[in-house]
Write a structure and sequence with these properties.
Strand content of chain B: 5-15%
CATH architecture of the largest domain in chain B: 3-Layer(aba) Sandwich
Distance between the termini of chain A: 67 Å
Number of helices of chain A: 25
CATH class of the largest domain in chain B: Alpha Beta
Shape of chain A: elongated
Order of helices and strands of chain B: EHHEHHEHHEHEHHEHHEHEH
Strand order of the largest sheet of chain B: 2-1-3-4
Oligomer: heterodimer
Shape of chain B: globular
Largest sheet of chain B: 4 strands, parallel
Strand content of chain A: 5-15%
Chain lengths: 494, 265
């Protein structure tokens, strides 16, 4: 459970007035939106792929237990281990135990939003491990000691100059003393620093974009290749991901990969797509270390040239199975592409940190209350205009506005909606259900309002309407109501 | 065709000329227009605030008021989207009302899409001089498929140069109660919208939903910008010369009998 210590309103006020953040958001979101649109236009079957992906996910969710058990059996058959974590705390403990058993000192990490969700870095560091994020964006925010502000581009809020300063501060002790100005220089320097960590690491932790039930494989996609180095160079590879990420077959993965790259970063395919199936296979005759059971079973006569000695998968529930049987089941189709963030006018106005937890934007506004409790995130479902753009770009067609409205309904029914809003709403609704009374009241009220504002055309202020009139004028009503005028006219005619 | 006009509460209260414009356009297209008196609001404020009990009560009122019309038409994509898509879902556990809601849903249309798609109407007889841009209101665009219809009809307005602004499909930041609950975000969004309008060089912005238009006009007036804001139906009905939304000199509506007002030079 996580409850932010600042209010949503306070975080929004900071974000709106942060010029650097605003510039970064404008640049990033515009680029992703345009690149995605161009690729979608160029792919006639994009809509068919969306429908196919939705169907596959729905099928999996209807048979989730079966596919997870099949996946587990395949992982075990390949020599790996599957761990089931009901909560974030359980997931942290499982991973700490694996690290301890491995005698680890250094842990490298590929990008994983589930590891953010379960608060893994803090737990590992508290236990004395050196943790190194290897995705460039994650590495930058780790140096800055900040949470990610986007699920795909975690350091999207950082400017080039801020990154240069961070690198200078943190790389100086390692012998890198030059103040960098070019992006390529920064990428190179980070690459050199990270390279050392990959070889030193005892444990490599990655996420898992997809888990393949038929083969027991986990799949990651990256643009930097950091995930591959993280998971193949460490002695122990741990995959952390949500239970909803399983898909039936390798063929299904291809459907999702085509959607994911286009939706996430506006690429036809990400630079690296890596399938991991069990630990490194070692032929018994060559090494004598293993029983030879795995290799003979799969007809493999040669040892793998690389790969970890141990392969673990930590399947995290953390509220997901509760969503499965209820009104929010469709959220479990999410493949974490971030398209809903890039196309959300609220996200692109306030950035990710304002949302207060690891998942921002429309998908975060649904997930955060579901994982942390609806009483811990009142504003998130409400800070949305229900404009629906997120739903139209979602690669798995999640009805995000509908889910946000369902959260509002649950807030209302459990009494979380603040009483002034509740009272005003119910008073208005009571009148709105009584047309005669409603029209009588409006025949009195509207001409008054009109009279006050007619000369200037607008009202500059209105009692109890500060939310509108602090930054906007209220256009004055034209005069009487339409109903009144219509009645007068049609009465005169008949 | 006998059409029931869903006036919408905002047109009824804030800008009756929008409803009169709708009446005129429907009559020009050959419809008999009836305005049921027992209508108030579609219930969206309650629906979007999570108050489904009150929403159902209001929806039942609307369903009853519009029984028997061949078509139910309103000058708003947002209200008609609620009636068309959200009403049936309100009654999942009530087969009788669900059937009635679905029946109304099938008969419900946003004004301009009804004129173009159903009535095949294109005989616009209006003049509006100058450069104009059109804002695609979210609900009209995404729930009711309103995109080409207003542009097609506006192409028939003489004297008008329609230019597309950047980000025309982006939300203006109104969002019903959103704009008063989260004024910081809403103001940022409407300023973004206004920047696009300005960049287009248009002297007027048109749209199909009064909520958005009140928001945009309210911010434009506060900033003292010389951009007029009008409902598309007003311009199509030849009422574009009247004071635009938020302009001084608002006057009670003249009604369809007086709709042929003098045009701007």
């Amino acid at each position: 459970m996580h409850a932010p210590t600042t209010t949503f309103a306070a975080r929004v006020a900071v974000a709106i007035h942060d010029q650097r953040l605003q510039a970064a958001l404008d640049r990033a979101s515009g680029g992703f939106v345009a690149k995605r649109a161009a690729l979608v236009d160029a792919l006639p079957e994009f809509e068919a792929l969306r429908e196919r992906a939705r169907t596959v996910k729905e099928h999996v969710l209807s048979n989730l237990d079966g596919y997870l058990l099949r996946y587990e059996a395949e992982v075990v058959r390949q020599g790996g281990h599957v761990h089931w974590a009901a909560t974030d705390a359980e997931a942290r403990q499982i991973i700490l135990d694996i690290c301890k058993a491995a005698g680890a000192k250094t842990v490298t990490k590929g990008k994983s939003m589930v590891s953010e969700e379960i608060g893994l870095n803090d737990a590992l560091e508290a236990a004395g491990y050196q943790v190194v994020e290897t995705d460039l964006g994650e590495y930058i925010i780790q140096l800055a000691k900040e949470p990610p502000s986007h699920i795909i581009v975690p350091a999207v809020h950082k400017t080039r100059a801020q990154v240069a300063d961070l690198f200078e501060e943190h790389h100086r002790p390692l012998g890198y003393t030059r103040h960098l100005t070019e992006v390529s220089e920064m990428v190179n320097e980070a690459r050199q620093v990270l390279r050392g960590h990959y070889f030193k690491a005892d444990v490599g932790i990655t996420g898992g974009n997809f888990l393949v039930a038929e083969t027991g494989s986990s799949v990651i996609v990256t643009n930097e290749g950091n995930g591959d180095l993280t998971q193949t160079l460490a002695r122990v590879h741990i995959v952390t991901t949500g239970i909803e990420r399983v898909v039936p077959t390798l063929d299904d993965v291809t459907t999702f990969l085509r959607l994911l790259a286009r939706s996430a970063t506006g690429q036809e395919t990400e630079t690296y797509t890596t399938f991991s199936t069990g630990p490194r296979r070692v032929n018994a005759e060559q090494s004598g270390e293993h029983s030879g059971e795995h290799s003979s079973e799969h007809g493999s006569e040669h040892s793998d040239v690389d790969g970890p000695q141990e392969y673990h998968v930590v399947l995290v529930d953390n509220g997901r199975s509760k969503m499965l049987g209820g009104a929010f089941r469709e959220m479990l189709r999410c493949i974490r592409c971030g398209a809903c963030l890039n196309h959300c006018p609220v996200y692109t106005s306030i950035g990710g940190h304002a949302y207060g937890w690891v998942y921002p934007g429309p998908m975060g506004s649904v997930l955060t209350p579901l994982i942390n409790g609806i009483d811990n995130a009142y504003d998130l479902p409400n800070a949305c205009t229900l404009n629906g753009r997120c739903q139209t770009v979602c690669p798995v067609k999640i009805p995000l506005p509908g889910l946000l409205r369902e959260l509002r309904r649950q807030q209302f029914e459990t009494g979380l909606t603040p009483w002034p809003i509740r009272t005003a709403l119910q008073a208005w609704a009571w009148v709105a259900q009584r047309p005669a009374l409603y029209h009588a009241l409006m025949r009195i009220g509207i001409p008054l309002l009109s009279l006050v504002g007619r000369k200037q055309g607008v009202l500059h202020a209105l009692p109890l309407a500060g939310g509108w009139t602090d930054t906007r004028d209220l256009p004055a009503p034209q005069g009487g109501t339409f109903q009144q005028a219509w009645k007068a006219q049609n009465g005169a005619r008949s | 065709m006998r059409v029931g006009l869903f006036v919408t509460c905002l047109a009824d209260l804030m800008r009756p000329s929008v409803a009169f414009a709708a009446v005129k356009l429907l009559q020009d297209a050959g419809c008999e227009v009836v305005v049921p008196e027992a209508q108030t609001c579609c219930g969206q404020p309650a629906l979007n605030s999570g108050d489904s009990g009150d929403t159902r009560q209001i929806a039942q009122r609307v369903i009853q008021a519009f029984e028997g019309f061949e078509a139910v038409v309103g000058p708003s994509g947002s209200c008609m989207g609620t009636i068309k898509h959200d009403y049936p879902a309100l009654f999942v556990d009530d087969p009788v009302w669900r059937a009635r809601a679905e029946d109304l849903s099938r008969r419900s249309h946003e004004l301009l899409s009804f004129l173009v798609d159903v009535l095949k109407f294109d005989a616009v007889a209006a003049r509006f001089d100058g450069r104009v841009t059109y804002h695609d209101s979210c609900a009209g665009l995404r729930e009711m498929g309103v995109k080409g219809q207003p542009r097609k009809l506006l192409a028939g307005v003489s004297g008008m140069q329609l230019v597309e602004m950047q980000g025309t499909e982006e939300c203006c930041g109104f969002g019903g109660t959103f704009c008063v609950k989260y004024p910081d975000i809403s103001t940022k969004m409407v300023d973004d919208k206004i920047a696009h309008i300005q960049a287009s060089g248009a002297a007027a912005v048109l749209g199909g939903d009064l909520g958005c238009l009140l928001n945009i006009a309210g911010r434009i007036q506060r900033r003292g910008l010389p951009i007029r804001v009008l409902h598309t139906a007003e311009v199509l009905a030849g009422m574009g010369a009247s004071p635009s939304i938020g302009e001084p000199g608002q006057a009670p509506p003249a009604g369809p009998g007086h709709a042929g007002q003098p045009q701007p030079s």
